[in-house]
User: Fold these one by one.
Assistant:
Number 1:
Amino acid sequence: MDAEQILHVIVNAQNAASLQERQMAEQIFEQMKISDPRSAATTATALAEINRPLEARIFGFGMLHHLVKNRWQEFSADEHVHLARLAADRLKEVGNAGNDCWAIKCKASALFAEVLRQEGVSSWGLLLPEVLSLASIGPSQAELVAMVLRWVPEDVTVHNEDILGLQMQALLKGLLAALPEILPFLYKMLDQHFGAAVTAAQAGSTQAARAHAAAVDATLSAVQAYADWAPVPMFAQHGLLDACGHLLASTDFQLQACSFLRQ
């Protein structure tokens, strides 16, 4: 089935009360997971485009994530580059849209984080600065970048039997090496967007305040993900202990800040 046929099934499955329609959409997803990975990637890419219905985009991003996570080795080196560029472009696209729902933000950020893990530490020197630079564009992009950073160490913070010992060691080694770049970035995001959220709220700009607050919230989630395993002195060195201590006075962020400090 091509992208348009699958789109038709997905939309019908969401709108229909029929269990059969929903099961058909689920069967298509399962069939694509084990089909030719290049064909599946092409179809998923088309479904994840920004002009598609929400259900189709979630389907497309979900399939791309599966292919990157579980069938990466079946793609060539050139195809790896293409998939990495695709993930980066989709991330930028979602950030620039600014109004995408939480599900799409999660899918896009998780896809790019999975590419980072699959490409390995050797590629981070190129990919990581590119994604971090997106945060300077605005709060929506900053939120997405923080979400990427939250997902990257997931295999360290959550037990994953699919990750072999040497792979886990390589991931942890790469993350530790990247901490001097990541932690100052997270501090900068907290400082910048908390201040901007307060300023926007005082000015009565509710939409801007919410956007900056979402960036703070995503950044705190990322900080929490690193707090599970990173050396505590590094958080103090880069100001994150002080920053979260300051956020204890904020009713919007005190629970997350407290959760981090308790560790």
Number 2:
Amino acid sequence: MALIVAAAALLLILVASAYVLLVLFSPRDPTPSPSESTFLSPASPSTPQHLHRLAAPASVHLTVVVPAYNERDRLAVMLRPAVEFLETRPLDTPTSSPSSLSLPDGVERGSYEVLIVDDGSKDGTSDVALELAKEVEREFGAKRGTVKVCRLMRNRGKGGATKHGVLHASGHRILFVDADGATHFPDLALLEAELDTLEAAQAPVVASGATHGLVVGSRAHLVATEAVVKRSALRNLLMRSFHLYLSLLGLSTIRDTQCGFKLHARASAQLLYPALHSPGWIFDCELLLVAERCGVPLREVGVRWTEVPGSKLDVVRDSVRMARDLVVIRGNYLAGRWTTPGRVPPEVVKAASEARATEGRKER
């Protein structure tokens, strides 16, 4: 009897200790300052304007959220091709145009905003971003949209900056993209086409603006290519180990969770982003885990990608940190400290599943 009591006491101590560690390692939502809800732009370079709110109706077709920390030297590599593509692509051809589905009232097809979120940079990223915005708008015009620059007072991490940008997005669709320009931006058309398919399948059962979907750009098809093979053996080993670890913890639907090129339907962003917690590199994994739990239709599309020098990722340190943070995410949901925000309507899930089944039959 004494042995049973001792074992129970030890188990209780272990559980309590694990819970305390979980609380200690769990991120805390920052308190935003009023200035972080404003932006500067070429049209208003010195007078801050208020950002949109995700909870409000969309006012443009696409928001591109760009989290940027100390990116003054790489930002142009992403911004110039992005604005050129958004300003010059034809809007009347299926392979390059935004969705042909109906848009909410007041939203003009092809309209956009690029929202650069300076994540507390120390190298003048905000100033450089604003000057670049002026340059690209002079070069390509600002007929369809504009570039906005929002500055966070303190560094939050990639996830924190991305979440802040999405929570202030105006777009009917919302893309987040890494600031380094590693992903070929015109491949946005591939993600849009996939989201078109998802939304078309849901259109008969839900109203316009209530369709769901999250399309993930993927580098999984590049595993055997020179771009990946030329990486260090350690980096490739850690990459494979991390994906094995993800599958063991329950995220196996998406092969490339970390590619910074993800397109959301607005309704899905409204459902998911207020509930996200992770401020660091593991943010993508939490997003996908919560999306799976909520029933948001997920798709993965191969994109062109080139490794760009100057990454802020420390492969060993950040891999260990991401593994720890993923345990923290799982632990918080299992312990009930964090909760899933809700479920996508079952008719949406059914329509998306049927669309995937139809695609599978066509491929065979």
